[in-house]
Amino acid sequence: MNTIKSSGTFADSKPHYELLDGLRGVAALLVIWYHVWEGFAFVGGGMIENFNHGYLAVDFFFMLSGFVISYAYDDRWTKMSLKGFFTRRLIRLHPMLIMGAIIGAITFLIQGSTQWDGTQTPFGWVMLALLLAMFFIPAVPGAGYEVRGNGEMFPLNGPSWSLFFEYIGNILYALIIRKLSNRMLKWWTALLGIALAYFAIMNVSGYGSIGVGWTIDTVNFWGGLIRMLFPFSLGMLLARNFKPIKIKGAFWICSAILVVLFAVPYLEAEYMNGLFEIFCIMVAFPALVWMGASGNTTDAASTKVCKFLGDISYPVYIIHYPFMYLFYYWMMQKPQCPTFKEALPVVAILIVGVIALAYTLLKLYDEPVRKWLAKKFIKA
Fold first, then answer.
1. pLDDT more than 90, % of the chain
2. Cβ(89)–Cβ(373) under 8 Å?
3. Are 208 and 267 in contact (CB under 8 A)?
């Protein structure tokens, strides 16, 4: 097995869950596919026609994060300070987050620095938005530096909102949650589960889904916080109580299940859609994490696939959306929203290009920068 890289040091000794890495990569690619269809809905002014529940990949990411962080760090606190933990997590996450913001600024300038309604955004506001994004300071809706004008927390790279809550999860883990006994963690997770179930089934957001967290208003902040904390805490609980089971072909089975779950059509009865979301987060995703952590790759091809998908998972997720903005803008310039068939060549170039760029940035930027930072700031 490979040595685990979750700390950013490249030198930890715990065995690595290759299949969980692979599943994270599968989910990241499915997020791109979801955002492609979201673009057709946005430009065409209708509902998402395919892959309606792809947004749940974020909840799957949160659960994987809780599992991996608990596994990697729970037994290391006698030798590691809070500063050491936060340094490791910043080194692991922040270099690519900065790159995503830079790419977001470049693509926004290529787009003409215009909001969706055609309003021109001054160059100074774009640079301020970039600076704030680099320091991970969210934009207030309606402020000049909220450059796209649709309320995004990070308007140059919308999906950064999930990393904002990921950072909060890491802070709460280090300060509070890791200190909870198994029994207390179960109660904590149960209470969060009740809150999330109420939020989803009662459609507290008003969106007809739990697709919250992307802006800084009240329902999105508190909804996003609960949306992160429950799967993150449940992932920790799974890691603490994990006992592997024998399962053959776990990666392929789990990948197929993810595709099926995300492809389930939107359920028009809002409470039913909420029930499906809760089923995924409380039942299906924990089962997938358990199965993925139990399985092993049994041949060279599967091992390479899982490693590649794991390697590109975070870079793909954090850089893909600026190119989605360009894709949406391209569609908006047409007399009418193109059909999927008409847009297919552009979609193919978009997906292949994002994967290629993510891998290139991983090898030429992210890994070298993280290695240098770890050598400079982390003591062995």
1. 89
2. no
3. no
